[in-house]
Amino acid sequence: MQLTGNNQIRTIVALQFGAAVLIGLMLLAFGKTFALSGFIGGLIAAVANGYFAHRSFTHYRAQDPQKIAGRMFGAEIQKLIITGLMFGLTIVTITPLSIGALLGSYLFVQVAVPLIVLVIEDRQHS
Asked: How far apart are CA 78 and CA 73, in angstroms?
């Protein structure tokens, strides 16, 4: 899985969407509430990261590093706002909801998928 640039970003975001679905399916063993909460938590991470990637890298050209850093900083702030809004909307509208499954899935998708890609990439370079 030797990936570079936009292909790597697309792969990571696609894997995050897949992980959200997988988490939802795995949590079905504990009930529909856990499954839905886990799926939504993973989906929030994947959507927010997809938004960040789109805003940061869609029109990427080698330009002034300050402009690139500024665009990425702005995209990260927007991602945090969107993430907060999605969590707030989920908590207000979805009942019953498992906060543990919601936050745990979010954290898993946010952290595990990029780490897995890095480990696979590292093994291919060895």
From this structure: 9
* CA–CA gap between residue 13 and residue 23 (Å, rounded): 15
Contact (Cβ atoms closer than 8 angstroms) between residue 113 and residue 19:
yes
* Phi-psi sector, 82: left (phi>0), alpha (psi -120 to 50), beta: alpha
CB atoms within 10 A of CB 9: 20
- Record the pTM: 0.85
Q: What is the mean pLDDT of residues 93-111?
A: 95
- Kindly tell me if the per-residue pLDDT of 2 is higher than 70: no
Closest CA to 49 of 7, 22, 87, 83: 83
Per residue in 60-78, pLDDT (tens digit) is 566 677 777 888 899 999 9
Percent of the chain, pLDDT > 90? 60
d(CA 19, CA 81): 23
Q: Which helix (H) or strand (E) holds 63?
A: none
Tokens of 57: 């890298």
Q: How many CB atoms lie within 10 A of CB 45?
A: 24
